[in-house]
Amino acid sequence: MSDAKTAGTATLTVDGQTVELPILEGTEGPKVIDVRKLYSQTGMFTYDPSYTSTASCDSALTYIDGEVGILRHGGYTIEQLAGESSFLEVCYLLLHRELPDAATLQDFEHTITYHSMIHEQMRNLYSGFRRDAHPMAVMIGVVGAMSAFYHDSTDINDPQQRLIASHRLIAKMPTIAAWAYKYSVGQPFLYPRNDLSYSENFLRMTFGVPAEEYVPSPAIVDAMDKIFILHADHEQNASTSTVRLAGSSGANPFACIAAGIATLWGPAHGGANQAVLEMLDQIGHKDNIPEFLERAKDKDDPFRLMGFGHRVYKNYDPRAGVLKKSADAVLEELGVDDDPLLELAMELEKIALEDPYFVDRKLFPNVDFYSGIILKAIGFPTSMFTVLFALARTAGWIAQWKEMIEDPDQRIGRPRQLYLGSTERNYVSPDKR
Ligand code: SDX
Predict the structure, then answer these.
(1) How far is CA 100 from CA 85, 92, 96, 107, in A?
(2) From residue 87, how far is each of 93, 103, 143, 177, 378 by CA, in Å?
(3) pTM as predicted
């Protein structure tokens, strides 16, 4: 893409050699030092194992300012999108970088609706799993297998196939996810219905049964759609970076998304929403909060305050703020007036944000802190929380993948290393070791 502007140069002097490195500037956010020629000029690599100071690409999809707590897609704040848009409209925005007009949105919704069924033989994939398999394992398997069923949209060099694959993934994730849940509880699968909206369709396939009609309340449908919007995309996080790296080799989009699901599963990433509920259950009562905060600070104790902290946000995650507000509304709608979990979470947040350890390290609640409380209230088991994150993030993953593939400068990603192993030595037979 490289619409970046050159904004001067950085001078690096190393081993008596001085190199000038271009500084590039985007439309907003930190400038970058272009080190692409550093190795050829100095024989040295940069070193940034967890990419704390590394821009892996340029992108026009999502902007985050972690110091202030800003998240925007295509220039629109997450607060406005969550308040006024729909998940499918945000999907369109991520895929095409502009909000659609009414006719285009209607056409996009129709396209997604009419791709929501999955190949009938994919049903058989589920029965290969144990009923108690974690649904994320099922998601990785079934989504990865999509390339075997939708081979006609795997040619990454064909723009039409790239778009169809994007539509298929966004459209079919709710069906695949709902069926993963149904399989885990031994209930029959429900097919999507074309007269329902995206989130209503998903809720019906998840909680409906053939024996009777299931109509979720508009407030729950709205909350579900808002949760999907809040999880749609988030710059170059671990799972998105996985999708980009997998895609850079030319792997088909279904395999790349399956790789993203695998990365999201980790408790340090998307798996945190499940871990937050397990943590709140472990804490049990607000009287136990001080003990657990001490454990979270203890470097010898693996316990971490799940749902707190973020590599980029050193302020309140704007998504957590939206979720905290809608938690009250959803619980009220469900007649859950005083959910002890929500009360415990809010008390935990209050005490943590008064504790110097968390304040000094700028550890605020992130997107995962409140999402699980709403999802549990709606009726999802904790094992489905990260599946819902993956369902929504598929929009961001595939938009980032498409943006990368369409970048004429795109090459395979191939990082190097700082080698710390043995230098050359001769082989010695086992009897002489
Ligand atoms: C997501 O990247 C994204 O955008 C991700 C995401 C997205 O939308 O894609 O936003 C989604 O993954 C949100 C994060 C969900 N994960 C959790 O809630 C798990 C708990 N959080 C931590 O594991 C941690 O905060 C991370 C993984 C989120 C961030 O880790 P970093 O940036 O590597 O920070 P760090 O581990 O270097 O922590 C800095 C300091 C350390 O203490 P010191 O060594 O300086 O004394 O803060 C401490 C850490 O020990 N710390 C915590 C803590 N998080 C950081 N201490 C207690 N509890 C925590 N949760």
Answers:
(1) 11, 7, 9, 10
(2) 10, 17, 20, 16, 18
(3) 0.95
Coil, helix or strand at residue 60: coil
- The residues with which 71 forms a beta bridge, in sequence order, are 64
Tally of CA atoms within 13 A in the half-sphere of 319 that contains its CB? 27
The residues, ordered by sequence, that sit 6+ positions from 106 with a Cβ below 8 Å of its Cβ are: none
CA of 232 to the centre of ligand 1 (A): 20
Distance CA 243, CA 400 (A): 8
Rounded to whole angstroms, how far apart are CA atoms 89 and 86?
A: 5
Smallest CA separation from ligand 1 atom 1, residue: 269
- Among 304, 398, 416, CA closest to 94: 398
Cα 268 to ligand 1 centroid, rounded to whole Å: 7
Verify whether ligand 1 is closer than 6 Å to residue 151 (CB atom).
Answer: no
State if residue 366 touches ligand 1 by the CB under 6 angstroms criterion: yes
Q: Cα–chain-centroid distance for residue 105?
A: 24
pLDDT tens digits, 380-395: 999 999 999 999 999 9
Rounded to 10 deg, the angle between the 218-230 and 87-96 helix axes is 20
pLDDT of res. 331: 83
**What is d(CA 253, CA 143) in angstroms, rounded to the nearest whole number?**
10
CA dist., res. 353 & res. 363, Å (int): 8
Q: Is 65 a catalytic residue?
A: no
Name, in order, each residue with C-beta under 8 angstroms of 168's C-beta and a sequence gap of 6 or more. 115, 146, 150, 153
* Distance from C-alpha of 222 to C-alpha of 1, rounded to nearest angstrom: 36
Q: Has 368 been annotated as catalytic?
A: yes
pLDDT tops 70 at residue 1: no
- Other CB atoms closer than 10 Å to residue 210's CB: what's the count? 8
Distance CA 6, CA 391 (A): 38
Using DSSP bridges, classify how beta strands 32-33 and 70-73 pair: parallel, antiparallel or unpaired.
unpaired
State the burial class of residue 208 (Cβ atoms within 10 Å of its Cβ: 0-12, 13-18, 19+): buried
d(CA 47, CA 419): 11
Q: What is the largest CA-CA distance in the chain?
A: 79
How sure is the predictor about 332, in pLDDT bands with cuts at 50, 70 and 90? confident
The answer to whether the CB of 307 is under 6 A from ligand 1 is yes
Q: How far is the CA of 308 from the centre of ligand 1 (A)?
A: 7
Helix (H, G, I), strand (E, B) or coil at 70: strand
- Alpha carbon distance 327, 341 (integer Å): 11
Pair of tokens at residue 395? 């929009």
